[in-house]
Specification:
By secondary structure, this protein is of the alpha+beta class. About 20% of the residues lie in helices and about 35% in strands.
Length: about 280
């Protein structure tokens, strides 16, 4: 999983807003398999390895339902270490009656589901990178049916929650303008476009990963940004390589008119669709 190590720029913690913290804690522990790292009255941070924060869930004081037409989270994606891990969680879902979708993307094999507040979740594994197909700087990706029987053949019947090697593989965002998002993420944050999927989605990364961030306007073109207390994405975090990269990034963001707010150990910005990004090094 070297794509989720420095010097790459990659996603770590995703912070979402939920209606009921206790309901969400039950779901994310019993269904998805997280462990609790920290918990407060209306906020909890979840982990797979007992040390690394992957997901933070927050219950706003005046929580509001998300409307059907806003920007924000399409899904966050948990990357498992092995195909056997994927087989074991499929077995767990089947045994507990959890509904999920599934797709083969050529570069990866993925499951899709939604939490009790309809926040999107992907759980996936990568195929070996030497098997990915690149045409110049574009990686081949598809959406085909997943061969679940072939995956289940690798199951060993042991599901003990998310394996310790699980990372936040990527985040996929709903944006209001694909061109504005592309300018922000490429010129401002330095990502490369590695796949264009029709005219309404693109995938970006560093270090020739198939994508650290997905962007689409499938249900959000010209949509308003998510409200402060509405269920959905609150923030997500990117890890930078060093302070020099951070300084250059801040300069680039200011050049395209994006906000830059300093904090200890990093800074905050916001994409044109209102998605808040925390950048740390």
């Amino acid at each position: 999983m070297h794509f989720h190590e420095k010097p790459n720029t990659y996603v770590t913690n995703v912070e979402i807003k939920v209606r009921d913290l206790q309901r969400s804690l039950k779901y994310y522990q019993e269904v998805i398999g997280f462990k609790i790292l920290t918990v407060e009255t209306k906020k909890a941070t979840l982990t797979a390895d007992g040390q690394t924060a992957l997901l933070t869930i927050v219950q706003p004081d005046a929580v509001e339902e998300k409307t059907g037409f806003t920007t924000g989270l399409y899904h966050f994606a948990l990357l498992l270490p092995t195909r056997r891990d994927l087989a074991n969680i499929i077995t767990h879902f089947r045994q507990t009656g959890v509904y999920f979708g599934a797709s083969d993307h050529d570069v990866s094999e993925a499951l899709y589901l939604q939490d009790p507040d309809d926040n999107g979740i992907e759980i996936y594994i990568d195929r070996p990178e030497e098997n990915w197909t690149w045409t110049s700087d574009q990686v081949h990706m598809v959406t085909d049916p997943l061969n679940i029987p072939a995956i289940l053949a690798e199951a060993n019947g042991e599901w003990n929650g998310l394996p310790a090697g699980t990372v936040m593989g990527h985040i996929h965002l709903s944006v209001s303008s694909l061109s504005a998002a592309e300018e922000f993420y490429t010129k401002g944050l330095g990502f490369d476009v590695v796949t264009r999927y029709g005219g309404q989605a693109l995938f970006i990364s560093t270090g020739r990963y198939h994508h650290h961030i997905g962007l689409n306007t499938w249900y959000s073109e010209n949509a308003p940004k998510l409200g402060e207390n509405q269920i959905g994405l609150k923030t997500y975090s990117l890890i930078l390589d060093n302070e020099a990269q951070a300084a250059n990034m801040k300069e680039n963001l200011r050049a395209i008119g994006a906000p830059v707010i300093e904090f200890d150990g990093g800074f905050q910005t916001e994409d044109p669709a209102g998605n808040v990004v925390l950048l740390k090094f």
